[in-house]
Amino acid sequence: MRLRQIALVGADLAACSADIAAVLGVVDPYDDPGVQKYGLKNAVFAVGHTFLEVVSPQQPGTTAGRLIDKRGGDGGYMVILQVRDLEAARRTAAEAGVRTVEQLDFPGVAATHLHPRDTGGAMISLDWMDPWERWEWGGPEWQANVRTSTSVAIIGAELQAEDPAAMAARWSQVLGIQAIDEDGWWIPLEGGQIRFVPLRDERGEGLAGFDVAVNDPAAVRAVAGERGLLDADGEVTLCGTRVYLVG
Predict the structure, then answer these.
(1) Which residue in 106, 170, 175, 207 is a FRET match for 90, CA 20 to 30 A apart?
(2) DSSP-derived 3-state class of residue 225
(3) Which neighbouring-strand residues pair with 128?
């Protein structure tokens, strides 16, 4: 199981996309027509072999729009995990009592969106692709759009919680991976991790940040500073979400 994509929600898709492109050095996001049925428009950027998506409500009453209202602005939306054995992953989640919001099954592509009220923190999507390197949500030409001179890959997700230990235990149960209590609670993934931390703002529980491996953290932070995208602690923020730079 690996962290393959982070989804953010933003009211102004063009502005969020421009900031992501400038700060992370990524190009040519994919506009996935499949999200239109949810009343959304999106932009999916390839960050190495991983992906960063921004979804933006295009009509009233969308789940993404309600999340913006609930959390008082743009922010984290979904953690998308790629699994090798989808049936086993679906079975583990079902046995944990998690409801399915959406299930997709196409030749070579399948996904299950889990109800965030049953997992806590954020929506989880369990996705399977054949072959393993394929990524339908990034578009058919995503590999041609990879630029790694600035950013190499997304390698972590950070969930803030009222009770990090309890949320870690729940995600561990849902994913079937043992949570680790070492310098905080976290779940190991192939090439990355999911962390659970105490609430650090008034926005409540949710996907508060993600980690990006970059070649020159100082240079990335400088670009973010020029665009007014550093928070009070000096951390990069994109689409209302902290970005932790890992050299």
Answers:
(1) 207
(2) helix
(3) 110
What's the CATH number for 2-143? 3.10.180.10
What is the residue extent of each domain of the chain? 2-143, 147-246
- Residue 224 has, within 13 A of its CA and on its CB side, a CA count of 26
The residue ranges of DSSP E strands in 19-86, in sequence order, are: 40-47, 50-57, 75-82
Distance from CA of residue 76 to its chain's centroid?
Answer: 7
Domains 2-143 and 147-246 share a fold: yes
Count Cβ atoms within 10 A of the Cβ of residue 3 and give its class: 0-12 exposed, 13-18 middle, 19 or more buried.
buried
| Predicted confidence (pLDDT) per residue in 187-246, tens digit | 999 989 999 999 999 889 999 999 999 999 999 999 999 999 999 999 999 999 999 999
CB-based burial of residue 22 (10 Å sphere; 0-12 exposed, 13-18 middle, 19+ buried)? middle
Using DSSP's 3-state secondary structure scheme, residue 130 falls into coil
Fold of 147-246: 2,3-Dihydroxybiphenyl 1,2-Dioxygenase; domain 1 (3.10.180)
Strand partners, 112: 103, 126
